[in-house]
Amino acid sequence: MKTRDKILLSSLELFNEQGERNVTTNHIAAHLAISPGNLYYHFRNKSDIIYELFQEYEKLVDFYLDIPEGRSMTLADMMFYLESVFDGLWNYRFFHRDLEYLLDRDPRLRSDYRDFTDRCLAAISRIFEKQEDAGIIEPQPESLRKAMSLNVWLVITNWMAFLKTAHAEKTSASLTIHELKQGIYQVLTIEVPYLTPAYREQVMVLREQYRPTMPEPLPGEAVSLTDAGNSDVSGVS
Amino acid sequence: MKTRDKILLSSLELFNEQGERNVTTNHIAAHLAISPGNLYYHFRNKSDIIYELFQEYEKLVDFYLDIPEGRSMTLADMMFYLESVFDGLWNYRFFHRDLEYLLDRDPRLRSDYRDFTDRCLAAISRIFEKQEDAGIIEPQPESLRKAMSLNVWLVITNWMAFLKTAHAEKTSASLTIHELKQGIYQVLTIEVPYLTPAYREQVMVLREQYRPTMPEPLPGEAVSLTDAGNSDVSGVS
DNA sequence: ATTATCTATAGATCTATAGATAATGC
DNA sequence: ATTATCTATAGATCTATAGATAATGC
Question: For testing the chain A interface, which of B18, B104, B108 should be mutated: the one with the most A CBs within 10 Å?
Fold first, then answer.
């Protein structure tokens, strides 16, 4: 693997684990056992590394949220979107943590991120529409759908911060992808009141499998339950 | 005013305007035209300043969210809670921006903040219960109320970050309390489907007055409309 | 006497570059 | 020849303290 790619990979890993603020170019170079000079040969500065990582993240989520226009939506589709988006969030989780600072530092990033948000909001709205078309939720006026989509986005992007801050003891580093995916429970909560009688029970059962194990998951037990929940997903349609 | 208090006040102001990350003890001292040594005479370090500011914030919000048990809840009460909480958020807005970092740095803060979150969530739940009692929203099972309260909390605490990141051009500094309070529209969106016929219209009208002026408010026009909305609040009951 | 303040600075980083050297691809 | 890498370092901060000096309250 090329040094350039190793720098990106290590940066992502260190940013995710320790937070972008706590990781300097020196740390990245040291972690790779290369000289700082070498790092600066490949990247002009830390901002450029972050910008490339964002572009990866963006590409990934855009890929996940590419909603096919042809066929109608199933529950399995919906769960897949949710699982995927939370996967993306997990793999680039450093990003939302210091988002405001990063956008203040890099105008390209600010502008790109704005567009990214718009695309995500549009995709969420489209998913709601297709759920209406499929008879999963009751049809709603455009304006309500818009406001609901925005709430979904706020819940998705803030769920991780909530987990990392609402638990004492636990330093913000220790967090599992399972806990993160419990955010799906919160997202589905938003559409609970709109479910049609035909689908209500099914969605409620799906949702239950992501129920957050508050306030502190017991080491083995609760986790395996969530595991079962996640692998069930593909069995629904 | 005592130097110690001036330090707290200036710190809050600078943190809010520029972000905690961009404000050093040197900046604070310079802004007050005192020496760094003097600052360190009053506070052991930046963390201690932040911790005291948090305690002010906590006290303020606890005061706002003290739900009287005696009488039943009116719409005006509800709007007052919302307005107050967003006021608190505005006055200490630096805090949520770098929350994760701050909690990683100060165990006291982490522990206190956890308790603070729990109290806020409990208060939000209680507000929902009292709205049920008052016939404003339909009664819901405890577990749904819990999940809704958490969503409300996520929306409230993340609304500002959304505003600061979803608008391009606009640097994250320029943000008004009016825009922030448009978060009330998003919070009320969560309870829209649960409104009783008796109150539905009234709440929808109230909510409409906070509707976010996306994507970019025209300089004069849109703002004055929101202005009218906010001052109408006390007229409802 | 005690409290508040200032000056000066040590020590720790961090960023980013210049310039030398090594490795690689024609 | 070009690309990749290293060494060494300048310059910019920032935190936090020691020690001197000024102001204040009995």
Answer: B104
